[in-house]
Each structure stands twice: as structure tokens, then as C-alpha cells.
């Protein structure tokens, strides 16, 4: 039975990935005709206009798989609710991709969707055995908003957001399958497969970007999975944060640093750690592969804490050391780059 389940899962993954690849191929032509193009700005790292909005394919597979699970499994209300919430996030993202909404216009709709999530699916009640009560409700709403937006912030390099989503979705699928929630596990498998099909077009040099319809929907989906995993299956919230530590750490530290220096945090920029590496000439493929490796390590550590709850402290320290070392490495590489630039400028002046 276990073997047949794995074979079925693999067949579903391959089938969805293939369909996703075909749909994204069609979307590239459609987006180009509609002139839905992402032009370079202060935040982006690409040099030419690239179609954006290909993440609609991922969002559609997410919604359809949720509706299919509503037909297959008895707890249909959960899956219909998930489908409606994700359709709401995707609709907002798709409209934003077409009309470039300001943060002030986006936020009220995002807040409504976040509140709707906690109203229908519940909220995080406990962290480290501490009962949060109503404080947990507000914290969960903020967390959903932050997760949705940070995924959008981090979607700034070819293949980065999609590859992280694949690792996260496969990990979550394994967790949910272990506690018997096959429906949610299969939705996660479909998301991973859809992201893989998209990634084949999004790997550098990207032929298409996922856009807000993809990045915000994925961020909201993962936030919703955190809520479900925490309040319905008692997965430690910290385990889930460890899983997403690469994106959470980069986005959170960057925005706190920008706020400290009184920069306008809602404006485009290129100061995320992955962008800073690209700014000094590190290969995009190398950066994305390094991020995948970091995500795999975090996935392993997070899974260990789900299986052995008493290992959370060790895992947190390990992730802290790992990401702290990466941050230190980025700063060292930047300092070396500045020194080399200074030496080159000095030599150029002497030659003149």
C-alpha cells in the first residue's frame, strides 16, 4: 500500500508538472500579446522586458486541486474554504499585475483575506507551550500579511521563489501525510509540481515571471498551511518558521534595516541579501542553487523537530548559526568587492 501510494503521488507530480509546463508556455504567448511585461526597475535584476503573470498557472492548479479534494474527501468545507481563499489572493494578485496597485490600495484587500482566513480556519494558539489567546488571532493576521508580502519581496531573481516553493511544498506534504491529512498533502504535491513546471520556464534566463498572482498567492498559501499545521495538527510553529527561515530571515532583516535607516520600505530596492550578492557579480544560478541548499538544510532541521519535539532548541541554534554565517559571508564578499574596486580605480588613475 505504501509503495502504491508513492507511485500514485509520483504520477500525479509528473502529470501536473507536464501540464503546468504546457500551460505556462501558452501563458507566455498570452502575456506577451497583452503586453503584461515586467520592465527593469530599482528592485529587479533582469535587463529586458519579460512577461509577468505566469504564476496564474500555479494559482489555478492550487485552486482546482483544493476543489478536487473537496469531492474526494469528507471534510469538503475545509477544501472549499481553501480554494475560495486562494482564489481571492490570486484574483488580487492578477489584478495587481495588470494595474500596478499601490501598497495603500492593496493592503485593505489583503487584510480582508487575512481576517477571512482566521475567521474560517482558526489561528495560531500556542508557541512553545505558551497559550496566546486572542493575542494569537492578531499575531496570525499579521503573520499571514507578512508571509504573503515577503514572498512577493523575495521573488526578484530567476528561479528563486519557485524553487523555494517546491522544497517547502514537498516538505509540508510529507508532514501532513504522516498525520493522515492526505487531502492537504496532495494539494501540496500539486503546488510543488505546478511550481516545477513553471520553474522550467523561469530558470535563468527567465522566459516568464510569476508576478504577484504567483508570489502573493504562494506566500498566502504557505501562511495558511502554517495555520492548519499548528491549530489542527499541533505542529510546532517554530518548526514551520525554521522551514521558511531562508526567506523569512532575508526579508525580515532587510526590512528592519531599511526601517532603522528611515528608508521607505514599500519602495523597490535591491538590498536583500540575495540581491546584494548579485550586485557584486555573483552568478544568479549560483545564488539560487545556494538558496536551494540552505532551504533543504532548513527543511531537514524542521522535519527533525516535527518528529522529535525536544530538538527544537538545537534546530533553532543551528539555523541561527547557519544563516548568521551566510550573512557574515555576504558582508565579507561585499567588503572584498569594494577593496578590489578601489584598487582598480587607483590603478586606473595612475595609468591616466
UniProtKB/TrEMBL annotation:
Main location: membrane
Bilayer disposition of the protein: Multi-pass membrane protein
Subcellular location: Cell membrane
GO (cellular component) term, any one: plasma membrane
InterPro entries found in the cross-reference section: Glycosyl_transferase_4
GO molecular function, one term: metal ion binding
Pfam families: Glycos_transf_4
Keywords: Cell membrane, Magnesium, Membrane, Metal-binding, Transferase, Transmembrane, Transmembrane helix
Stored CDD domains: GT_WbpL_WbcO_like
Protein name: Glycosyl transferase
Source organism per UniProt: Arenicella chitinivorans
